[in-house]
Amino acid sequence: MCVIADDSGVLGLGGVIGGESTGCTEETTNVLIECAYFDPARTAQTGRKAGIITDARYRFERGVDPAFVVPGLDLATDLLLEMCGGMPSKAKVAGKVPQGGDVISFDFGKVRRLTGVDMGAEAGRSILEAIGCDVQGKGPQWKVTTPTWRPDIHGPTDLVEEIIRIYGLDKVPPAAMDRSHGVTRPVLTDGQKRSRRARRTLAGRGMVEAVTWSFIPQGEAEHFGGGSDALKLANPISVEMSTMRPSLLPGLLSAARRNANRGFEDAALFELGQAYEDDTPEGQLQLASGVRLGRARLAGQGRHWRDGQGAADVFDAKADASAVLGALGIDVGRAQITRDAPDWFHPGKSGVIRLGPKLVLAQFGEIHPATLKAFDLDGPVAAFEIFLSALPPEKKKSRARAPLDVSDLMAVKRDFAFVVSADTEAGDIVRAAAGADKALIEDVSVFDVYEGKALGEGKKSVAIEIALQPKDRTLTDQEIDTVSEKIVAAVSKATGAVIRG
Q: Among 71, 340, 426, 433, whose Cα sits 20 to 30 Å from the Cα of 12?
């Protein structure tokens, strides 16, 4: 810090504030007038470190005229003599006046190129001289020396600004910007388009978008598979916001708890944002996540005498994830659904949607009771998480629409009930039935699951509906029976099922 001092010690901070011991009182008879120039950067640093804001600091840290030190001393002395009287001593000058004024090579033609104003060179020279500049040279090339009191003029463009400011901004001719095309081209990336469709899909399913913090408590991050040292903030806002989130679900569960504490026990929230696996660019994931709390189901929210449905469950979360993936061009019917969901999901009421053994598209299910307890929530809570950044790129669609392929013949529907082992997945039955005759079978759906003592220990009955769609002629009874036999044989071969009597 630059200080003003004598043999007794520091008397004041240069350019910021003086000391109390050297201030004037009613008994003061001798006054020493100091008129000095202080470096702007050093003055600003001193003021910030000391935390002192004064008029002197405000002026010196923004730059004052170094050539005005001696004239300023004379002016202050004259003012003091006029107001108080007294006898002045001779002035004593220490140091030299800093070299002021930059020399700028200036092409006057730049005025027309930058502003479009066609003015005479003499008019421009007069303006620069009027503001204190020294202009040397003939023709369009000038050497312009700026005055010491204008530290804001650094280059030719600043000189153009000064000339046109004095000459008149109203004289600048209007000019329209070039338009290279009549219709604005698309500017959104494929990822941004997908995010927009995902938002519209979830909002259309009755969910409300939330925007939560990207940093969460360390304990929550560790609970959801994160919390590494690389993702800890060096200067967190608070202890509760110390780590970058590995998932969007902690923020949504906290938001759901706040809603429940305020009486909104049936809430459906979703969020699109980033989650972080590590501190590399590849470790930043784009996710779409959502939670359904209480009775916030697609059919409606809350309790009603006509509605006997219960709380949101794993199938609601699966339907939300499937709807978003379908809107983003993913055929969920061809994807695999496995049971290896993360630990924060209920192990018996959750699943993972994947394409192949490595590509995970989404995970869904009911939140584990231990996780609900950690977030002080009453369950059940259904949730899903879609990895938007992991989705395969969409196929470019042709501008021409595909011809409408609709049969004018009525579809034939048949029901089949299979008795299988209790651990057999319904998806295996559906895939086996659909592959029995791909030309005729249009749709396969499960409409009933039954378990009882009549079936035997460890058995269950899964009933499916098959839709057969003829293309060119009505199916005969023999053809329908033939397809039915293929379906029974295919399901039996794949799952060991037997037709229920």
A: 71
The predicted-structure confidence for 158-216, as pLDDT tens digits, reads as follows 999 999 999 999 999 988 877 766 677 778 888 899 999 999 999 999 999 999 999 99
Q: Would you say 274 and 289 are in contact if contact means Cβ atoms under 8 Å apart? A: no
**Identity of the amino acid at 277:** E
Same topology, domains 205-302+309-390 and 412-499? Answer is: no
Q: Tell me how far apart the alpha carbons of residues 96 and 100 are, in angstroms, rounded to a whole number.
A: 11
- CATH architecture, range 412-499: 2-Layer Sandwich (3.30)
Mean of the per-residue pLDDT values of the chain: 89
- Give me the pLDDT at residue 56, please: 92
- Supply angle C-alpha 39, 42, 46, rounded to 5: 130
- Domain map of the chain by residue range? 3-84, 103-171, 205-302+309-390, 412-499
* H or E element at residue 443: strand 441-450
Helix, strand, coil % in the chain, rounded to nearest 5: 35, 25, 45
Place of tokens 């910007």: 177
Class (C level, CATH) for 205-302+309-390: alpha beta
DSSP classification of residue 232: B
Cβ 443 vs Cβ 467: under 8 Å: yes
Distance CA 485, CA 424 (A): 21
155 with 148: CB under 8 angstroms? no
The burial of 47, by beta-carbon neighbours within 10 Å (0-12 exposed, 13-18 middle, 19 or more buried), is given as: buried
pLDDT of residue 301: 67
Burial of 301 (0-12, 13-18, 19+ CB in 10 A): buried
Whether residue 458 has pLDDT greater than 70 = yes
Burial class (CB in 10 A: 0-12, 13-18, 19+), 28: exposed
Q: Which CATH superfamily includes the segment(s) 3-84?
A: Phenylalanyl-trna Synthetase, Chain B, domain 3 (3.50.40.10)
How far is it, in rounded angstroms, from Cα 323 to Cα 201?
7
Q: Give the whole-angstrom CA distance, residue 44 versus residue 60.
A: 8
Class of domain 103-171: alpha beta
Strands (E), 81-217: 103-107, 134-136, 141-145, 208-209, 215-216
Give the separation between CA 332 and CA 321, rounded to whole angstroms.
9
Residue 464 has which token pair? 């499916």
Cβ atoms < 10 Å from Cβ of 467: 14
Q: Angle at which helices 121-130 and 156-167 pack, to 10 degrees?
A: 100
Token look-up 């299988």 returns 420
Torsion of CA 200, 203, 205, 206, to 10 degrees: -170
Q: Return d(Cα 5, Cα 427) in angstroms, integer.
A: 88
322 sits in which H/E element? helix 314-327
41: nearest Cα among 57, 54, 53? 57
